[in-house]
Specification:
alpha+beta, three-stranded mixed sheet, 10 strands, 17% helix
Amino acid sequence: MSTPATDRPAGSPIENRVGMVFIPVRDMRRSIEWYSALLGLPVGEASHEDTIYDLPTTGEVGLALDANKPDFDIAGPPRFFWWSTDLEACLAHLQANDVKVESDIEDIGSVSFLQFRDPDGNLLMVCKRN
Protein backbone atom coordinates (compact mmCIF):
# COMPACT_ATOMS: atom_id res chain seq x y z
CA MET A 1 0.00 0.00 0.00
CA SER A 2 1.37 3.43 -0.97
CA THR A 3 1.12 6.57 1.04
CA PRO A 4 -0.35 9.32 -1.20
CA ALA A 5 1.89 12.09 0.12
CA THR A 6 5.12 10.29 -0.81
CA ASP A 7 4.21 7.56 -3.31
CA ARG A 8 6.34 5.23 -1.16
CA PRO A 9 5.23 1.70 -0.40
CA ALA A 10 4.63 1.23 3.30
CA GLY A 11 7.89 0.13 4.88
CA SER A 12 10.17 1.44 2.09
CA PRO A 13 12.13 4.69 2.02
CA ILE A 14 12.25 4.52 -1.81
CA GLU A 15 9.64 6.60 -3.59
CA ASN A 16 7.78 4.79 -6.36
CA ARG A 17 8.53 7.52 -8.95
CA VAL A 18 11.08 7.69 -11.73
CA GLY A 19 13.30 10.76 -11.49
CA MET A 20 15.68 10.44 -14.44
CA VAL A 21 16.32 8.11 -17.37
CA PHE A 22 19.94 7.97 -18.57
CA ILE A 23 20.74 7.22 -22.21
CA PRO A 24 24.33 6.05 -22.74
CA VAL A 25 26.10 7.84 -25.59
CA ARG A 26 29.61 7.83 -27.05
CA ASP A 27 29.81 11.20 -28.82
CA MET A 28 28.14 13.84 -26.65
CA ARG A 29 28.04 16.69 -29.20
CA ARG A 30 26.59 14.44 -31.95
CA SER A 31 24.04 13.03 -29.47
CA ILE A 32 22.95 16.46 -28.21
CA GLU A 33 22.38 17.60 -31.80
CA TRP A 34 20.58 14.36 -32.78
CA TYR A 35 18.21 14.26 -29.79
CA SER A 36 17.56 18.01 -30.05
CA ALA A 37 16.58 17.62 -33.73
CA LEU A 38 14.48 14.53 -32.93
CA LEU A 39 12.52 16.35 -30.20
CA GLY A 40 12.49 19.86 -31.73
CA LEU A 41 14.61 21.31 -28.91
CA PRO A 42 17.32 23.96 -28.92
CA VAL A 43 20.88 22.61 -28.79
CA GLY A 44 22.54 23.23 -25.45
CA GLU A 45 25.81 22.48 -23.70
CA ALA A 46 26.81 19.41 -21.70
CA SER A 47 27.81 19.63 -18.04
CA HIS A 48 30.00 17.51 -15.75
CA GLU A 49 33.09 17.90 -17.96
CA ASP A 50 31.01 17.22 -21.11
CA THR A 51 29.73 13.84 -19.88
CA ILE A 52 26.09 14.66 -18.99
CA TYR A 53 23.42 16.54 -20.91
CA ASP A 54 19.93 17.04 -19.47
CA LEU A 55 17.36 17.15 -22.26
CA PRO A 56 14.45 19.47 -21.45
CA THR A 57 11.36 17.34 -20.79
CA THR A 58 7.71 17.88 -20.09
CA GLY A 59 6.64 16.30 -16.83
CA GLU A 60 8.52 15.09 -13.82
CA VAL A 61 10.80 12.43 -15.36
CA GLY A 62 14.10 13.77 -16.65
CA LEU A 63 16.10 12.51 -19.61
CA ALA A 64 19.90 12.70 -19.60
CA LEU A 65 22.51 11.78 -22.18
CA ASP A 66 25.41 10.12 -20.36
CA ALA A 67 28.90 9.71 -21.89
CA ASN A 68 30.58 8.38 -18.74
CA LYS A 69 30.78 4.74 -19.96
CA PRO A 70 31.29 4.74 -23.75
CA ASP A 71 31.79 0.95 -23.88
CA PHE A 72 28.10 0.17 -23.17
CA ASP A 73 26.17 -2.68 -24.85
CA ILE A 74 23.19 -1.77 -27.04
CA ALA A 75 21.54 -5.20 -26.74
CA GLY A 76 18.15 -5.52 -25.15
CA PRO A 77 14.73 -3.92 -25.32
CA PRO A 78 14.07 -0.20 -25.85
CA ARG A 79 15.49 1.86 -23.00
CA PHE A 80 12.14 3.69 -22.60
CA PHE A 81 9.41 5.15 -24.81
CA TRP A 82 7.84 8.49 -25.61
CA TRP A 83 4.07 8.96 -26.03
CA SER A 84 2.56 10.31 -29.25
CA THR A 85 -0.93 10.73 -30.66
CA ASP A 86 0.18 10.29 -34.30
CA LEU A 87 2.60 7.49 -35.15
CA GLU A 88 2.33 8.15 -38.88
CA ALA A 89 3.63 11.68 -38.31
CA CYS A 90 6.39 10.24 -36.09
CA LEU A 91 7.42 7.83 -38.84
CA ALA A 92 7.53 10.66 -41.39
CA HIS A 93 9.59 12.79 -38.96
CA LEU A 94 12.06 9.95 -38.36
CA GLN A 95 12.42 9.30 -42.08
CA ALA A 96 12.89 13.01 -42.83
CA ASN A 97 15.74 13.08 -40.28
CA ASP A 98 17.42 9.92 -41.66
CA VAL A 99 16.78 8.00 -38.44
CA LYS A 100 17.24 4.22 -38.62
CA VAL A 101 13.70 2.86 -38.21
CA GLU A 102 13.64 -0.70 -36.84
CA SER A 103 9.96 -1.61 -37.15
CA ASP A 104 6.77 -0.83 -38.93
CA ILE A 105 4.02 0.67 -36.79
CA GLU A 106 2.82 -2.30 -34.75
CA ASP A 107 -0.60 -2.57 -33.08
CA ILE A 108 -0.59 -4.82 -30.02
CA GLY A 109 -4.09 -3.98 -28.78
CA SER A 110 -3.85 -1.38 -26.03
CA VAL A 111 -1.04 0.50 -27.78
CA SER A 112 0.66 0.82 -31.14
CA PHE A 113 4.38 1.48 -31.35
CA LEU A 114 7.31 2.26 -33.59
CA GLN A 115 10.94 1.40 -32.81
CA PHE A 116 14.08 3.18 -34.02
CA ARG A 117 17.77 3.62 -33.15
CA ASP A 118 19.81 6.61 -32.08
CA PRO A 119 23.31 7.22 -33.55
CA ASP A 120 24.86 4.98 -30.87
CA GLY A 121 22.52 2.08 -31.69
CA ASN A 122 20.27 2.44 -28.63
CA LEU A 123 16.82 1.05 -29.37
CA LEU A 124 14.14 3.68 -28.72
CA MET A 125 10.36 3.60 -29.07
CA VAL A 126 7.36 5.87 -29.46
CA CYS A 127 3.90 4.59 -28.44
CA LYS A 128 0.31 5.64 -29.03
CA ARG A 129 -2.63 4.58 -26.88
CA ASN A 130 -5.30 2.82 -28.95
